[in-house]
Design brief:
Layout lengths: L2 H15 L12 E3 L6 E6 L5 E4 L16 H4 L2 E5 L2 E4 L3 E6 L10 E4 L1 H6 L19 E3 L8 E7 L6 H4 L3 E7 L16 E6 L6 E4 L3 E2 L5 E2 L12 E4 L8 E4 L4 E2 L5 E2 L11 E7 L2 E6 L5
Parallel strand pairs: 2-6, 5-10
Antiparallel strand pairs: 1-11, 3-4, 6-8, 7-9, 9-10, 11-12, 13-14, 15-16, 17-18, 19-20
Length: 289
């Protein structure tokens, strides 16, 4: 090994030792779909933004609600804080300044290789960048299709850099919030959201709306039926959008009429007067019976 190479190796080793304490990656548990894509820059360095516990630090999540097996819950994997992108977002990798002299190799690996770090040579088509990168480089959009992608450092002198945290978990999500390409998100009656553990964005409807795209108005939520009557949503094709089932002592479209009591137009040509709580009498106009 030349003196120059030895110096580079020593400098790199010393920098790897200057790793900050445990990092809890802060992130929103629920994100709303953005209408415009945005760029994200990831610093490819083991000296910052490195988390260790896959759930509590890297995802800032309670293990009990992830639904993973006990074996998967105990993953201790030093890694760069995981990243979530929308389909169409751009990703830039900014390499550690000490890598400037000899570059770096970034490869697309399987989940198992991500967990254990790559230990073998990789095919040319698995390289994220055609050549060793220096400085800031954009990741080709072809590597950012829908799904979860695992990127790891493949160092010529072994997997040391990967085990120190130079590996990145990138999840790319699409949205299912439009009935048609030019339609408003969630029909304008909800928000297009994705929880951190969900694989895509879906509609979360405002009150009174339902359906996959929040396209259905729930008129029963406005409580049109009175006097403890039950409301049934009906097909919009049937004309009325709801139907009230009235208790025995009430009637009418909205169950507001008392059975046996005078109502508007109860007596067509005459005056109506209530006799008892459940009976009435029509006093007819002259000429009517």
């Amino acid at each position: 090994m030349s003196t120059k190479s030895a110096v580079h190796t020593l400098v790199c080793f010393l920098q790897l030792c200057v790793v900050n304490g445990q990092t809890t990656c802060e992130r929103q548990m629920t994100a709303e779909w953005r209408l415009q894509p945005k760029p994200s820059v990831v610093k490819w360095t083991p000296r910052e933004n490195i988390c260790s516990d896959f759930y509590t630090e890297c995802w800032n999540m309670n293990k009990s609600i992830t639904g993973e097996t006990s074996e998967e819950q105990n993953l201790s994997i030093p890694q760069i804080c995981p990243l979530q992108l929308q389909l169409g977002d751009t990703l830039f990798i900014s390499s550690e300044p000490s890598f400037q002299s000899y570059g770096m190799n970034l490869v697309n690996v399987s989940k198992e290789e991500f967990i254990n770090c790559p230990k073998a040579a990789f095919l040319q088509e698995q390289l994220i960048f055609v050549c060793q990168i220096k400085g800031l480089h954009q990741v080709d959009p072809n590597w950012l299709g829908v799904g979860t992608h695992y990127f790891a450092e493949l160092h010529k002198r072994g997997p040391l850099l990967c085990t120190m945290g130079l590996r990145l978990n990138v999840t790319v999500k699409q949205q299912f919030c439009q009935q048609a390409p030019n339609a408003p998100l969630c029909s304008g009656h909800g928000k297009c959201l994705s929880h951190v553990w969900e694989k895509a964005y879906h509609c979360h409807c405002f009150s009174q709306y339902s359906g996959r795209f929040c396209q259905k108005f729930d008129v029963c939520s406005t409580k049109p039926c009175h006097n403890n009557a039950s409301c049934t949503q009906k097909s919009q094709l049937s004309g009325d959008s709801y139907e009230c089932t009235c208790p025995p002592q009430f009637s009418g479209e909205n169950c507001t009429e008392i059975v046996g009591q005078c109502q508007p137009r109860t007596c067509f040509n005459g005056n109506c007067s209530n006799v008892t709580p459940n009976t009435f009498l029509c006093e007819c106009d002259k000429g009517f019976t």
